[in-house]
Write a structure and sequence with these properties.
The protein is mainly alpha-helical. It is about 55% helix and about 5% strand. It is built from 3 helices and 2 strands, in the order ββααα. It has a two-stranded antiparallel ribbon with strand order 1-2.
């Protein structure tokens, strides 16, 4: 029995609440809990738009729909923008490929056309 630790005791704090304490951790002059200042570095959700909407007479259902569908709309628009960027890159690569193939194949007519375009650019 002596190898078992002592059971926690219940102590009443100065504000009247009860807490469990370890007997060895409680000094003879127990003054209550220490104040711990904990800083959480994360901003809470911004409710400004919802407050303005409720203040202007929009119903709570519309505000809830805005809260739900707002981030959903941002996600959808981001996905669409990513798809457009991929398609633009694909068009660029295909255009470069076609240009390279046409340039490498070449023909006398193509060479003459290139010379005419260069001459026209110099005249400007």
């Amino acid at each position: 029995m002596e190898s078992l630790p002592e059971l926690p005791r219940v102590a009443q704090l100065t504000d009247g609440t009860y807490v469990y304490t370890q007997p060895a951790a409680v000094p003879a002059t127990f003054q209550g809990p220490q104040v711990v200042h904990q800083h959480i570095h994360q901003a809470g959700p911004d409710r400004t738009v919802q407050r303005i909407a409720l203040g202007s007479g929009v119903g709570a259902g519309a505000v809830a729909a805005g809260v739900y569908f707002g981030p959903l709309l941002v996600g959808v628009l981001t996905a669409i923008a990513a798809n457009i960027a991929v398609l633009a890159f694909l068009a660029l690569v295909l255009g470069w490929g076609v240009h390279t193939v046409v340039k490498s194949i070449g023909s006398p007519h193509g060479t003459a056309a290139v010379k005419n375009v260069r001459k026209a650019r110099r005249r400007r």
